[in-house]
Specification:
By secondary structure, this protein is α/β, with parallel strands linked by helices. It has 2 domains: about 1-240, Mur-like, catalytic domain (UDP-N-acetylmuramoyl-L-alanine:D-glutamate ligase), CATH 3.40.1190; about 255-385, Alpha-Beta Complex (Protein-Tyrosine Phosphatase, Chain A), CATH 3.90.190.20. It has 14 helices and 15 strands. The strands form 2 sheets. Strands 2-3-1-4-5-6-7-8-9 form a 9-stranded mixed beta sheet, sandwiched between helices. A hairpin with a 2-residue loop joins β8 and β9. It is globular. The two termini are about 35 Å apart.
Length: about 400
Amino acid sequence: MLSFFAKQVIKKYHPTIIAVFSRGCEFDPSPAIVGVLSKKFLVARRVSPIKTGKEAIGAILNSAPEENFISKFFGALSLLAGKKIDYPEIIVFRVSDPAVLLKIKNLEKIFKVDFLVILPGAIGHEAEAATKIKRFLSPNAALILKSSDKNSFNLFKKEKYKILTYSSPNADIFAGDIFLQSNGGIKGIKRFSISFKVFHKGSMLPVRISRSVNEKEVCGVLIAALLGTETGINLVEIAGSFSDYQPTRGIMNVIEGIKRSVIIDNSANYDFKSALRALDSFSKLKNGRKIAVIGDILGLGEKCEKYHLEIAGKIFETRPDLVFCAGARANFVYEELKRLNFDRSRLFEFESANEVEAALQPKIREDDLILVSGSKEAGLEKIVSQIMANPPLAE
């Protein structure tokens, strides 16, 4: 019943549908996309990724995820009766695992995607995956791909769809002069930022993202700016939309810590390469002491030990002042640092994230820079909430 209503709503309002396939990626471009497009359009976005066909239909019906069937039913009737005048002109939804939607029968008969953003690694290498994805695309759909994503190019290059690219200098849009800035500890926490220039068709747009040191966020800005230009928004308006940009939570975003310290929250890290990049960016920041809290990186299979040893090597190279290792896999990091003769007085080991806070808090000083990095499943967000100056209210 709701799927029928969703199909009728699409016919009545003709919204532009933007889908973001983002499985296993270090940033979510959808907040930046909404920020840019809201300058000109009424935009709806689901904050959490859509995991089922019912959630996709709910997004079309402009209903909240917690609404029950009766509420969605009458909301759909109201939309079809024309009583609601605030139906979005653009709907943005993110899909963390495209396979979920691809398995849902006849979903493509309800809506078609006008802009499809495929982040690197979000779809498999099989031609079958691309064939299924094509079912969801409108005849004039545009695909937005990273210029180095050869896999996605190979799957779609023979199709008639418009392909727009970002990242490299020969792409439709790219960034240059990327600079990580930190200055003044907690007194200048807003100065922790990424500054860069966006280049598009001979024009240049300066951008600054506050409270983040995640260089991957640059790609989110490029994607959003590209969608903005494709929908008729000028670069001046696009530039203004990033003034209050909210970086991806848990991925190298900057938080005020206890004792006037600064936390770099990387507690939702994706893989070991992300961990290496985090440590590299951490080492570039100019502040007082540096404390690294390292948790388990999951999903590494038989190479688990090898990759954790690489993380240990990066820590030894970048030389933080204190290192806390939390978890069974992080034990590989701890043991390797000992083997490398890292100063034992600055190295601490714990069986889990739950044990870290009691030892960490007394050692924190004003203007300390604290990196908390590990897979989301490792539970390091608990450490972040315990050492935040303004922790969230318990649910």
